[in-house]
Each structure stands twice: as C-alpha cells, then as structure tokens.
Design goal:
By secondary structure, this protein is an alpha/beta fold. The protein is 32% helix and 17% strand. The longest helix has 15 residues, at 54-68. The protein starts with 8 loop residues before the first helix and ends with a helix.
C-alpha cells in the first residue's frame, strides 16, 4: 500500500516480480475496493514535495485503509518507527518503554499505532517499530561525508539501525508466524553503535577524510530486539552495522 510515486517507476518495477501493483493515495479519503488478501502491510512514505503531513499519512491515511478493510478477515501489519521514543540519555528501550516523541514523525506513528489497535480492522494487528533503514543506495551520511559537509548532532549518541533486507524479513515473519496478533515489535539489529563509530567505519570503507561534526543535542537511546528474535524467530543476515555496511 503506497502513495503514488511521481513517475510510477516503483509500480513498474514490481510487475516483473509477479506482483500486481495497485497505486492509490491514502490521503484522499475513501479508497476504492481493495483486492481480497490475507495480509495488508501499511508501509507508507511521504513523497518528495508532497503537501501531506505525517499525520495525514499515518493517521488519516491509515484510517482510510482500515475503514476499507472493515469486516474483512485481514491481518494488518503497521510499519512504525523507533522515532516513537524520545529518550536521550543512552537508555535501552523496548516495546514497554515510554513513548513521548517530540518530533512530528514520531508523534504521527504513535497516533497511528493507537488508532490501529482501537479500530475494528486492527484488533489482530501487528506493529513493527523499525530502526533506521540502511542498505545499498541508502547508507546514512554517505553523501554528506563524500561532499565534506558538516555532520549535525552529537557523535557520542547511539544510532539504531536495521538493514533493509532484515527489515523485510521481519515483515515476512510477522505475516507468517501465527498466531502473532495484537503485538508490537522493535525491529533493530540490537547492536546500536555511537555515531562516531559509524562514521569512522564509513570513512574507512569510502577511503575519504573524516567529516567535521557540529555536535549538539540529539536523541540518544539503544533499541532492544529481544522480542522479535524470541517471538518472530527473526534471524538477521546483518547482525550489526559493520557487516551490513560491508554488504552495502
């Protein structure tokens, strides 16, 4: 389920894989009839230059999808974010930790989670709180490092990441391991590293000079993935940023 990409390239790329793309905009209210499926994964991003807010997508857009599914025996998997946590003292966080986000994206995700579990179509839903995604073509700070730009934020703060392939495995596990319902899972590699360590590894792999860092406040927490490992049977191909960066 996605908002329409500007060029439609994403949908075009799915067809050769045997998938049948259905492009629609979840922020436009009532949706057309959805195909009969067993599982719906709500993983919706905000396209560049879009006027939609994060709340438009993760609350009103999610509500439109849930309303369209009303009465159907469908499991909903909602892709949320570890941005729901606002801890900034290096604390470990898990599914039971307090969620009082200060940023728009985190607040929208928390609101989406609460809407999901309260909605009739979301009673058997699963929430996946994904850490920062990385992988081929999306290595954090790589463009900034290559350009020699300043890096904002404290280098001592922890960074929580998950390789895109392992994030996809988590979605598949949530859809196939039954009965896993009405549960929330943190999806990270479980080995947070400081921003300083991540940048040092990056510049070594790229063979460039270390970046200049501005410092300053930023969120600082460490995300546990114990429940996903235990209950979903999640097995990571890239157990830390070190292995994942080498593969990216």
């Amino acid at each position: 389920m996605c908002m329409p990409p500007p060029s439609g390239d994403n949908a075009t790329a799915l067809s050769p894989e045997g998938l049948q793309p259905l492009t629609m905009d979840v922020t436009r209210g009532v949706l057309s009839a959805l195909p009969a499926v067993d599982t719906v994964v709500f993983a919706v991003g905000r396209p560049p230059r879009s006027r939609a807010t994060m709340f438009d997508i993760h609350v009103e857009g999610l509500r439109a999808v849930l309303d369209a599914l009303r009465g159907l025996p469908v499991q909903v998997i909602y892709v949320s974010s570890t941005g729901v946590y606002a801890q900034d003292g290096g604390e470990w966080v898990d599914e039971e930790s307090e969620c009082e986000p200060v940023r728009e994206g985190g607040r929208a995700c928390v609101a989406g989670e609460r809407l999901l579990f309260a909605h009739p179509s979301g009673r058997d839903a699963v929430v996946l709180r994904l850490a920062g995604l990385y992988g081929p073509g999306r290595v954090p700070h790589s463009a900034d490092v290559a350009a020699g730009w300043w890096i904002a934020g404290s280098t001592s703060a922890f960074v929580n990441l998950i390789h895109v392939d392992d994030a996809a495995r988590a979605v598949v596990a949530a859809a196939t391991v039954r009965p896993v319902t009405s549960r929330t899972f943190v999806i990270s590699d479980g080995h947070p590293a400081t921003r300083r360590a991540c940048l040092a590894l990056l510049v070594t792999r790229m063979g460039v000079a270390p970046p200049r860092c501005e410092g300053g406040p930023c969120l600082d927490k460490r995300a546990r993935n114990d429940r996903a490992i235990r209950e979903l049977g999640l097995r990571l191909s890239h157990p830390s940023y070190r292995e994942g960066l080498a593969a990216s």
